[in-house]
Design goal:
Blueprint lengths: L4 H11 L30 H15 L5 H13 L4 H10 L2 H8 L5 H9 L3 E3 L2 E3 L11 E4 L7 H4 L1 H6 L7 E4 L4 E4 L14 H9 L2
Antiparallel strand pairs: 1-2, 1-3, 3-5, 4-5
Length: 204
């Protein structure tokens, strides 16, 4: 179900990082940006570095829309604690991301498609909103009507081979799971620089 493979490769080159860990990504062989002038070296301004960090985070979590990403930032300002960490925790608590972390999808893109097609219940209620934000204690399960599908019949053996983070609970036999708590900073990808994003929005 994953889409836009070639487009993702271009995104990797533009951002200068292998965001999705694909072994065949061209960024593994060359670090130039796409386009005819991609080989040119240029010094990035502080604003450019901050903008690139924001775009990187948006793409990392499944191409989150700009307006929605801004709302996440504004919500992170309202929460107690570090704004940057709050933002990362909000992104990690998205339903599509949690399903991906549970090992029930091979990518966030696939998780988003599965949710959109209505294959999951949250706290016993069907949902088709991938961006739904979960709270600690929320329970996620594959819907009874979806368990008969070939994809979900094979999912137990596939998911068992995937490890999950400590902040997520999972019952593979029941094809369910739970958001136990919000992740700590050390449990989130260290290559993401949330402070640059805070600086980006602070200057606007």
């Amino acid at each position: 179900m994953s889409r836009r493979i070639k487009s993702k490769y271009k995104i990797n080159r533009r951002l200068g990082v292998n965001l999705w860990g694909r072994p065949k990504s061209p960024i593994n062989a060359r670090d130039s940006r796409p386009g005819q002038h991609g080989q040119r070296r240029r010094k990035e301004s502080d604003y450019g570095v901050q903008l690139m960090a924001k775009q990187k985070l948006r793409k990392y979590y499944g191409d989150v829309g700009e307006r929605q990403f801004r709302r996440y930032y504004e919500e992170s300002l309202q929460r107690r604690g570090l704004t940057g960490l709050n933002l990362l925790q909000i992104l990690e608590s998205r339903l599509d991301n949690v399903i991906y972390r549970m090992g029930y999808a091979s990518s966030r893109t696939q998780a988003r498609v599965l949710v959109t097609h209505g294959h999951f219940d949250v706290n016993g209620r069907r949902t088709d909103v991938p961006s739904m934000l979960l709270s600690p204690g929320d329970h996620i399960a594959v819907r009874d009507g979806s368990r008969k599908r070939v994809f979900f019949k094979d999912l137990r053996s596939i998911a068992t081979e995937k490890s999950i983070p400590d902040w997520i609970g999972r019952d593979v036999e029941a094809l369910s799971g739970e958001l136990v708590r919000l992740p700590e900073r050390l449990e989130i990808d260290g290559n993401l620089n949330e402070q640059l994003i805070v600086e980006y929005y602070s200057r606007r």
